[in-house]
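Input (structure):
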Protein backbone atom coordinates (compact mmCIF):
# COMPACT_ATOMS: atom_id res chain seq x y z
CA UNK A 1 0.00 0.00 0.00
CA UNK A 2 1.20 3.52 -0.88
CA UNK A 3 -0.10 6.65 0.88
CA UNK A 4 -0.65 10.02 -0.81
CA UNK A 5 -1.38 13.39 0.83
CA UNK A 6 -2.96 16.12 -1.35
CA UNK A 7 -2.29 19.42 0.42
CA UNK A 8 -3.89 22.48 -1.12
CA UNK A 9 -6.45 25.25 -1.09
CA UNK A 10 -10.02 25.56 -2.38
CA UNK A 11 -9.20 23.72 -5.61
CA UNK A 12 -8.17 20.70 -3.55
CA UNK A 13 -11.18 21.22 -1.27
CA UNK A 14 -13.37 21.13 -4.37
CA UNK A 15 -14.86 24.64 -4.43
CA UNK A 16 -17.64 24.82 -7.02
CA UNK A 17 -17.56 28.12 -8.97
CA UNK A 18 -20.95 27.38 -10.54
CA UNK A 19 -22.78 27.89 -7.25
CA UNK A 20 -20.68 30.41 -5.35
CA UNK A 21 -19.28 30.84 -1.89
CA UNK A 22 -19.58 27.97 0.60
CA UNK A 23 -20.20 25.52 -2.24
CA UNK A 24 -18.38 22.32 -3.10
CA UNK A 25 -18.32 19.78 -5.92
CA UNK A 26 -19.62 16.33 -5.16
CA UNK A 27 -16.94 14.10 -3.72
CA UNK A 28 -16.65 12.05 -6.91
CA UNK A 29 -15.83 15.19 -8.93
CA UNK A 30 -12.91 16.48 -6.81
CA UNK A 31 -9.46 15.77 -8.20
CA UNK A 32 -8.04 13.97 -5.12
CA UNK A 33 -11.00 11.57 -5.13
CA UNK A 34 -10.74 11.02 -8.88
CA UNK A 35 -7.03 10.34 -8.32
CA UNK A 36 -7.94 7.73 -5.72
CA UNK A 37 -10.17 5.93 -8.22
CA UNK A 38 -7.45 6.01 -10.87
CA UNK A 39 -4.74 4.71 -8.53
CA UNK A 40 -6.94 1.93 -7.17
CA UNK A 41 -6.73 -0.20 -4.05
CA UNK A 42 -2.92 -0.21 -3.84
CA UNK A 43 -2.97 3.50 -2.91
CA UNK A 44 -4.75 5.54 -0.26
CA UNK A 45 -5.26 9.24 -1.00
CA UNK A 46 -5.80 11.79 1.78
CA UNK A 47 -7.42 15.06 0.60
CA UNK A 48 -6.37 18.07 2.69
CA UNK A 49 -7.85 21.13 1.01
CA UNK A 50 -8.73 24.39 2.78
CA UNK A 51 -10.42 27.39 1.18
CA UNK A 52 -8.07 30.39 1.20
CA UNK A 53 -4.95 28.48 2.27
CA UNK A 54 -1.62 30.17 1.47
CA UNK A 55 1.83 28.64 1.18
CA UNK A 56 3.45 29.95 4.36
CA UNK A 57 1.95 33.36 5.11
CA UNK A 58 -0.74 34.67 7.45
CA UNK A 59 -3.80 36.18 5.82
CA UNK A 60 -5.18 39.31 7.54
CA UNK A 61 -7.82 38.07 9.97
CA UNK A 62 -7.29 34.45 8.94
CA UNK A 63 -3.90 33.38 10.30
CA UNK A 64 -5.17 29.79 10.47
CA UNK A 65 -5.07 29.68 6.66
CA UNK A 66 -1.26 29.77 6.74
CA UNK A 67 -0.31 26.49 5.08
CA UNK A 68 2.98 26.07 6.89
CA UNK A 69 1.76 26.17 10.49
CA UNK A 70 -0.39 22.99 10.56
CA UNK A 71 1.74 21.04 8.10
CA UNK A 72 3.89 19.08 10.61
CA UNK A 73 0.79 17.91 12.48
CA UNK A 74 -1.00 16.93 9.27
CA UNK A 75 2.04 15.04 8.04
CA UNK A 76 2.22 13.26 11.38
CA UNK A 77 -1.47 12.37 11.45
CA UNK A 78 -1.25 10.65 8.05
CA UNK A 79 2.14 8.96 8.33
CA UNK A 80 3.57 6.91 6.78
CA UNK A 81 3.42 8.91 3.57
CA UNK A 82 4.91 7.95 0.23
CA UNK A 83 3.79 11.06 -1.69
CA UNK A 84 3.04 14.61 -0.56
CA UNK A 85 1.41 16.73 -3.26
CA UNK A 86 1.35 20.52 -2.92
CA UNK A 87 -0.88 22.79 -4.99
CA UNK A 88 -0.74 26.22 -3.38
CA UNK A 89 0.08 29.78 -4.36
CA UNK A 90 -3.12 31.21 -5.83
CA UNK A 91 -4.26 32.85 -2.59
CA UNK A 92 -0.78 34.26 -2.05
CA UNK A 93 -1.39 36.29 -5.23
CA UNK A 94 -4.28 38.19 -3.62
CA UNK A 95 -3.92 41.96 -3.34
CA UNK A 96 -4.17 41.89 0.46
CA UNK A 97 -1.09 39.67 0.74
CA UNK A 98 1.30 42.10 -0.96
CA UNK A 99 3.69 39.31 -1.94
CA UNK A 100 5.95 39.02 -4.95
CA UNK A 101 6.02 35.85 -7.01
CA UNK A 102 9.47 35.11 -5.58
CA UNK A 103 8.14 35.42 -2.03
CA UNK A 104 5.35 32.99 -2.92
CA UNK A 105 7.97 30.55 -4.24
CA UNK A 106 9.90 31.06 -1.00
CA UNK A 107 6.74 29.99 0.84
CA UNK A 108 6.56 26.83 -1.25
CA UNK A 109 10.21 26.19 -0.46
CA UNK A 110 9.38 26.30 3.24
CA UNK A 111 6.71 23.65 2.71
CA UNK A 112 9.21 21.45 0.89
CA UNK A 113 11.87 21.87 3.55
CA UNK A 114 9.41 21.18 6.37
CA UNK A 115 8.16 18.04 4.64
CA UNK A 116 11.71 16.78 4.19
CA UNK A 117 12.58 17.49 7.83
CA UNK A 118 9.38 15.96 9.21
CA UNK A 119 9.75 12.93 6.98
CA UNK A 120 13.05 12.09 8.62
CA UNK A 121 11.73 12.81 12.12
CA UNK A 122 8.32 11.17 11.85
CA UNK A 123 8.93 8.20 9.57
CA UNK A 124 12.70 8.08 9.03
CA UNK A 125 12.40 8.70 5.28
CA UNK A 126 11.45 11.57 3.04
CA UNK A 127 8.27 11.10 1.01
CA UNK A 128 8.34 11.89 -2.69
CA UNK A 129 7.17 15.49 -2.99
CA UNK A 130 5.06 16.61 -5.96
CA UNK A 131 4.64 20.33 -6.60
CA UNK A 132 1.81 21.52 -8.84
CA UNK A 133 2.00 25.07 -10.13
CA UNK A 134 -1.67 26.15 -10.03
CA UNK A 135 -3.57 27.09 -13.16
CA UNK A 136 -3.13 30.88 -13.45
CA UNK A 137 -5.87 33.35 -12.62
CA UNK A 138 -7.79 34.34 -15.75
CA UNK A 139 -7.35 37.85 -17.08
CA UNK A 140 -11.06 38.66 -17.16
CA UNK A 141 -11.10 39.08 -13.39
CA UNK A 142 -13.34 42.18 -13.50
CA UNK A 143 -16.32 39.84 -13.93
CA UNK A 144 -15.24 37.64 -11.03
CA UNK A 145 -16.89 37.83 -7.60
CA UNK A 146 -13.31 38.01 -6.32
CA UNK A 147 -12.61 41.26 -8.20
CA UNK A 148 -10.93 43.55 -5.69
CA UNK A 149 -9.25 40.60 -3.99
CA UNK A 150 -7.43 39.93 -7.25
CA UNK A 151 -6.14 42.39 -9.85
CA UNK A 152 -3.83 42.47 -12.85
CA UNK A 153 -0.76 41.96 -10.66
CA UNK A 154 -2.43 38.82 -9.24
CA UNK A 155 -2.81 37.46 -12.76
CA UNK A 156 0.83 38.25 -13.55
CA UNK A 157 2.18 36.67 -10.37
CA UNK A 158 0.08 33.53 -10.84
CA UNK A 159 1.66 33.11 -14.29
CA UNK A 160 5.18 33.50 -12.92
CA UNK A 161 4.87 30.66 -10.41
CA UNK A 162 5.41 27.80 -12.85
CA UNK A 163 9.02 28.71 -13.67
CA UNK A 164 9.84 29.43 -10.02
CA UNK A 165 8.28 26.18 -8.79
CA UNK A 166 10.04 24.21 -11.51
CA UNK A 167 13.39 25.53 -10.25
CA UNK A 168 12.50 24.46 -6.71
CA UNK A 169 11.64 20.99 -7.91
CA UNK A 170 14.98 20.70 -9.66
CA UNK A 171 16.79 21.88 -6.53
CA UNK A 172 15.05 19.45 -4.17
CA UNK A 173 14.37 16.54 -6.55
CA UNK A 174 10.61 16.98 -6.40
CA UNK A 175 8.24 15.94 -9.16
CA UNK A 176 6.72 18.91 -11.02
CA UNK A 177 3.30 19.37 -12.62
CA UNK A 178 2.57 22.53 -14.60
CA UNK A 179 -1.20 23.05 -14.58
CA UNK A 180 -1.01 25.90 -17.11
CA UNK A 181 1.02 23.93 -19.64
CA UNK A 182 -1.36 21.01 -19.11
CA UNK A 183 -4.34 23.23 -20.03
CA UNK A 184 -6.18 22.62 -16.78
CA UNK A 185 -9.48 24.42 -17.21
CA UNK A 186 -10.40 27.33 -14.93
CA UNK A 187 -13.98 28.57 -14.74
CA UNK A 188 -14.60 31.98 -16.38
CA UNK A 189 -17.28 32.53 -13.75
CA UNK A 190 -14.74 33.45 -11.06
CA UNK A 191 -11.37 33.16 -12.88
CA UNK A 192 -9.75 31.10 -10.09
CA UNK A 193 -11.44 27.75 -9.57
CA UNK A 194 -11.30 24.60 -11.64
CA UNK A 195 -14.19 23.34 -13.71
CA UNK A 196 -15.32 19.72 -13.43
CA UNK A 197 -13.25 18.98 -16.51
CA UNK A 198 -10.30 20.76 -14.87
CA UNK A 199 -10.52 18.48 -11.82
CA UNK A 200 -10.72 15.40 -14.04
CA UNK A 201 -7.75 16.36 -16.19
CA UNK A 202 -5.62 17.37 -13.21
CA UNK A 203 -6.27 14.01 -11.55
CA UNK A 204 -5.26 12.21 -14.75
CA UNK A 205 -2.00 14.17 -15.01
CA UNK A 206 -1.11 13.59 -11.35
CA UNK A 207 -1.96 9.91 -11.77
CA UNK A 208 0.44 9.65 -14.71
CA UNK A 209 3.13 11.50 -12.73
CA UNK A 210 2.87 9.03 -9.85
CA UNK A 211 2.69 5.93 -12.03
CA UNK A 212 5.67 7.03 -14.11
CA UNK A 213 7.63 7.60 -10.88
CA UNK A 214 6.65 4.16 -9.60
CA UNK A 215 7.99 2.58 -12.78
CA UNK A 216 11.37 4.32 -12.57
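Output (sequence):
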Amino acid sequence: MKYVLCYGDSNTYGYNPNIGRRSRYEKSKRWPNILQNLLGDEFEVYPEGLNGRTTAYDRPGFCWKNGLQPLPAILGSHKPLDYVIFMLGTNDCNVEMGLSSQQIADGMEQLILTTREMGLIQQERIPQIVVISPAPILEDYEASPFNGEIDLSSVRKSRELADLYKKLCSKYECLFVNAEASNIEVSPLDCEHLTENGHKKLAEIVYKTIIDNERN
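Notes: The chain has a mean pLDDT of 96. The first strand starts at residue 2 and ends at 8.
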